[in-house]
């Protein structure tokens, strides 16, 4: 059975993306429900996979993570085994905040990596990333400034 989002569900999701710490009473007021039906909807949205988790979005600069790098990676061979080895390895690196298989480029993967500084990036790149079996080429692009930081998804 599939769960179909209605207008109220979409409102709940929009609010949660920008105010993840909102309590159920405030959320219910904002979407025009009483607390119990609102809590029931939250549970349904989570159990149907619309809400994966609730996290705090941290300020990287306050944590001394001043360098964001986008890394495009090409693999030597395009085999499931080589991709599995690569993906298992990058999942262990705390610096990697996202990793996607991409198309429309020469590269196979696009990573977003957050590190303290250039020295930290060099250690990460030369000491770990380039040592993964099957990595062929690595192209790094450095973020100068992030224009949009919220990461909220559009909900139609």
From TrEMBL:
GO terms for biological process: regulation of DNA-templated transcription; response to amino acid. Pfam families: AsnC_trans_reg, HTH_24. Residues 5-66 form the HTH asnC-type domain. PROSITE patterns: HTH_ASNC_2 (PS50956). Keywords: DNA-binding, Transcription, Transcription regulation. GO terms for molecular function: sequence-specific DNA binding. InterPro entries: ArsR-like_HTH (IPR011991), AsnC-type_HTH_dom (IPR000485), Dimeric_a/b-barrel (IPR011008), Tscrpt_reg_AsnC-like (IPR019888), Tscrpt_reg_AsnC/Lrp_C (IPR019887), WH-like_DNA-bd_sf (IPR036388), WH_DNA-bd_sf (IPR036390). One of its GO terms (cellular component) is cytosol. The lineage of its organism: Bacteria, Pseudomonadati, Pseudomonadota, Gammaproteobacteria, Cardiobacteriales. It comes from the Bacteria. This is Winged helix-turn-helix transcriptional regulator.
């Amino acid at each position: 059975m599939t769960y179909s989002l209605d207008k109220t569900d979409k409102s709940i999701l929009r609010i949660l993306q920008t105010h993840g710490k909102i309590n159920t009473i405030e959320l219910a007021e904002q979407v025009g429900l009483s607390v119990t039906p609102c809590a029931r909807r939250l549970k349904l949205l989570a159990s149907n996979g619309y809400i994966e988790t609730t996290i705090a979005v941290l300020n990287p600069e306050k944590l001394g993570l001043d360098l964001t790098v986008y890394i495009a990676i090409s693999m030597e061979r395009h085999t499931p085994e080589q991709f599995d080895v690569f993906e298992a390895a990058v999942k262990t690196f705390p610096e990697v905040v996202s990793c996607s298989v991409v198309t429309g480029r020469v590269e196979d993967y696009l990573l977003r990596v957050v590190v303290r500084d250039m020295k930290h990036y060099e250690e990460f790149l030369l000491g770990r990333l380039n040592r993964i079996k099957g990595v062929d080429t690595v192209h790094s692009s450095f973020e100068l400034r992030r224009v949009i930081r919220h990461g909220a998804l559009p909900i139609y």
